Fold:
Amino acid sequence: MAAAVEISLPNGLKYSQPTGLFIGNEFVPATGEKFAVINPATNEEVITLPGASEADVDKAVAAARRAFEGEWSELAAVDRGSFLYKLSELIDRDRKLLASIDAFDNGKARHTYTDALEGDIDESYNVFKYYAGAADKITGRTIETSPAKLAYVLQEPLGVCGQIIPWNFPFMMLAWKVAPALACGNTVVLKPAEQTPLSALYFGKLVVEAGLPAGVVNIIPGIGSVSGKALAGHMDVDKIAFTGSTNTGRAIMKSAANNLKNITLECGGKSPSIVFEDADLDQAAKWCHSGIMYNQGQVCTSTSRIYVHEAVYDDFLKRFVEITKENARVGDPFSSETWQGPQVSQAQYDKILSYIEEGKSSGARLLHGGSKHGSKGLFIEPTVFADTTEDMKIIQEEIFGPVVAISKFSTEAEAIAKANDTSYGLAAALFTEKISKAHKVARKLQAGMVWINSSNDSHFGIPFGGYKSSGIGRELGQYALDAYTQSKAVHVNLGSRL
Ligand code: NAI
Ligand code: MG
Structure:
């Protein structure tokens, strides 16, 4: 057995953190490279954890395969649903602890750790409940192909699903991936990000408590280029679902080509907001601000480029800077004064600061922030650039931090062209009080998700995913049931005619 570690969280909660790997319903030692778990608010090491080696990945996949072919496949769909329902109840029971773990490990903030609590964990509870109810509603169709023949379609699980998740919504990304996969009758091997492994390992305890058969859920923290790569290239894994950067998505797609794995990729973004001259400017400024600054700017759908009609440009800038100033309360994720916490890691912190320098030297007008905040921890000031141009790196590349680029446009066609002027296509927001313009522009935006008069809404019933280099496939809602099943057509000859 791998040892557990007692952890005291900054808000006084104490708990027993499992370490190692969760395979076959047990915490077992890992044999791969060690990595440090950092508290980004202090940039100090909490513990070091051993990561999964290639041999460990083999063990986890074998456990998932045995479970898939054994007890799990014998269960009625309604009973799979009951297990998911039990998990949802346990998540709800432990919501404060789970939120505190993610706030500690990731730095999630905004009015204490409320983002983690009411955002991530309550959403995860709902996701498990949604798929608990969906498990026994997965159906195929029956089609009469001629008077003497018919065919019916079975919607069957894919098998063993490898799931590789990022660090920006540690527990919620687990929920988005694990719940629909299990509802469809698959088994999973989940690799959390090395920056935020704690809540995923803790989930292993809930899996045991809920009584799931051994091997249905396996959790293997580890280094991406070792355990993630081994999982993506494993010949006995049937599907890879991934959320993270477009470059890693590309590498995973190549690794997954060996046995033509089914893939779902949810990758990067550089999502635009368009503010038309007839928008409610107060609302637009408010949504545009939270659309980029929420979660320290570490959101794949962050609306990091804002295009504003020239007639209201100066007015919008004034309001946007005012809101940024009001919410520039950067600091301790567990303090009720805080709106913005630390960035997740030294690497992300360095990358964001270098983009800020790049923005300054490329001639963008700095309206707020522009440097690190404080002397300890990975804090960065919310940073606002105006008068940006399409050729600038800060307009073209994903920064993944609290940095926004604002510029103006004159015509609707120009706004749409600029919004679409990117290799990404994850999301887009638009602000107007004109109903026909809103729907017309929504259709022209090359994005998997469009928000009219808001930003960064998502809901467990609604498909989530991107166009272009932002990904392949969709998560959540009924769409995830397609992503985790395959169709088998059974042809039935009722007569004797050929
Ligand atoms: P990443 O995409 O490399 O990491 C995401 C996950 O993939 C982690 O679990 C990691 O261990 C795993 N991974 C890494 N290399 C792998 C490989 N070769 N094979 C299989 N799995 C692998 O992202 P990273 O390095 O943490 O962040 C870099 C940038 O990626 C960020 O600055 C941001 O721009 C973007 N990103 C986007 C996210 C999103 O939600 N779309 C989430 C996290 C990062
Ligand atoms: Mg951490």
